[in-house]
Automatic annotation (TrEMBL):
<dbReference type="InterPro" id="IPR022417">
    <property type="entry name" value="Porphobilin_deaminase_N"/>
</dbReference>
<dbReference type="GO" id="GO:0004418">
    <property type="term" value="F:hydroxymethylbilane synthase activity"/>
</dbReference>
<keyword id="KW-0627">Porphyrin biosynthesis</keyword>
<comment type="similarity">
    <text>Belongs to the HMBS family.</text>
</comment>
<dbReference type="GO" id="GO:0005737">
    <property type="term" value="C:cytoplasm"/>
</dbReference>
<feature type="modified residue" description="S-(dipyrrolylmethanemethyl)cysteine">
    <location>
        <position position="248"/>
    </location>
</feature>
<protein>
    <recommendedName>
        <fullName>Porphobilinogen deaminase</fullName>
        <ecNumber>2.5.1.61</ecNumber>
    </recommendedName>
</protein>
<feature type="domain" description="Porphobilinogen deaminase N-terminal">
    <location>
        <begin position="9"/>
        <end position="219"/>
    </location>
</feature>
<dbReference type="GO" id="GO:0006782">
    <property type="term" value="P:protoporphyrinogen IX biosynthetic process"/>
</dbReference>
<dbReference type="InterPro" id="IPR036803">
    <property type="entry name" value="Porphobilinogen_deaminase_C_sf"/>
</dbReference>
<dbReference type="Pfam" id="PF01379">
    <property type="entry name" value="Porphobil_deam"/>
</dbReference>
<dbReference type="InterPro" id="IPR022418">
    <property type="entry name" value="Porphobilinogen_deaminase_C"/>
</dbReference>
<comment type="subunit">
    <text>Monomer.</text>
</comment>
<dbReference type="InterPro" id="IPR000860">
    <property type="entry name" value="HemC"/>
</dbReference>
<keyword id="KW-0808">Transferase</keyword>
<feature type="domain" description="Porphobilinogen deaminase C-terminal">
    <location>
        <begin position="232"/>
        <end position="306"/>
    </location>
</feature>
<comment type="function">
    <text>Tetrapolymerization of the monopyrrole PBG into the hydroxymethylbilane pre-uroporphyrinogen in several discrete steps.</text>
</comment>
Length: 315
């Protein structure tokens, strides 16, 4: 090997099917965007992968799927880390920065019925139907519309969850549309659940790529991959969640859109909602403003949610 040629860019990733798809996607984008760029994957096992039985909302706290992937980059075993932004804690990690936010995939949640049976609304589910989702955000919103539903945690990778559904363990399950589409399961979507029925999690559908803050080579490679519109959206969403001191398991939903003005400037419209666990109470707040002020708008919305008692709903 020519000793002056830089080594490959090493991507730390979990080994799950979705994480591997996302890492391969980043690898392909880097190869296309950066001349002579070699890329390789470095698989990492996380606490979330090792503990397959506990309820996700009860163990390890935030970052169970991301901490060890980040550590591989901090240790220099890898140069960049690919995350589902929904799973990446909002608290910054010393020594790392978000070098790229990829263009967002469809960000809504999806309802899946056994064997892909179609469904036109939540009202169609049978009385007291069993719905598999451990997410407090999804549970609260389901109960807001259908207080009779019986909700329970479902864990395992996508294939396992679909099998449990088809074998009759649940009448329906909820999954993020983005993950289903990436793995080619979009034909299993019975109904897309969008606001005002179901607000997605902050960062849902977006992929973030971290690198060491002092690694100029990787930073400039990642700059080619960054999508400014998604960056604005997730900046507001993550700032809001962080200001609420909440994590991805909290009953918090967000919706942001970016409008481009004729002069090329951006306007962000941002809304966030907090529910009580049983879905019977909710507070919401909205703000609009220039895209570059996304973080401030997110924090302002968090403050308004608190003023309306949102903090009590999170406790
Ligand atoms: N918490 C797991 C997780 N993290 C990201 C996704 C989906 C992909 C995405 O939102 O980008 C999922 C699966 C799910 O919620 O169904």
């Amino acid at each position: 090997m020519n000793s002056s040629s830089p080594g490959p860019l090493r991507i730390a990733t979990r080994a799950s099917a979705l994480a591997t798809w996302q890492a391969e996607h980043v690898a392909a984008l880097l190869r296309a965007a950066v001349a002579d760029c070699r890329v390789e994957l470095v698989p990492v096992t996380t606490q979330g992968d090792r503990d397959r039985n506990s309820a996700l909302s009860t163990f390890g706290g935030v970052g169970v799927f991301t901490r060890e992937v980040q550590q591989a980059v901090l240790d220099g075993r890898a140069d960049l880390a690919v995350h589902s932004l929904k799973d990446l804690p909002t608290e910054p990690t010393d020594g790392l920065l978000l070098g790229a936010v990829l263009p967002r995939a469809p960000r809504c949640d999806a309802l899946l019925l056994p064997h892909g049976r179609p469904c036109s609304s939540l009202e169609e589910l049978p009385q007291e139907a069993r719905v598999g989702t451990g997410s407090l955000r999804r549970q609260a919103q389901l109960l807001a519309h259908r207080p009779d539903l019986r909700l329970g945690e479902i864990r395992g990778n996508l294939d396992t969850r679909l099998r449990k559904l088809d074998e009759g363990e649940f009448d329906a399950i909820i999954l993020a549309e983005a993950g289903l589409r990436r793995l080619g399961w979009e034909n299993r979507i019975s109904l897309v659940l969008a606001p005002p029925v179901m607000f997605p999690a902050t960062g849902q559908g977006a992929i973030g790529v971290e690198c060491r803050a002092d690694d100029e080579r990787t930073r400039s490679a990642l700059a080619h991959l960054d999508d400014p519109v998604t960056r604005i959206e997730v900046t507001a969403e993550r700032a809001c969640l962080g200001a609420l001191r909440a994590g991805c398991h909290a009953p918090v939903g967000a919706w942001s859109t970016v409008e481009k003005t004729p002069t090329g400037a951006t306007t962000l419209h941002f809304e966030a909602v907090i529910w009580s666990r049983d879905g019977s109470q909710r507070v919401n707040a909205k703000a609009s403003g220039p895209g570059p002020e996304a973080a401030l708008l997110g924090i302002q919305v968090a403050r308004e949610l608190r003023e309306q008692g949102g903090g009590d709903l999170l406790r």
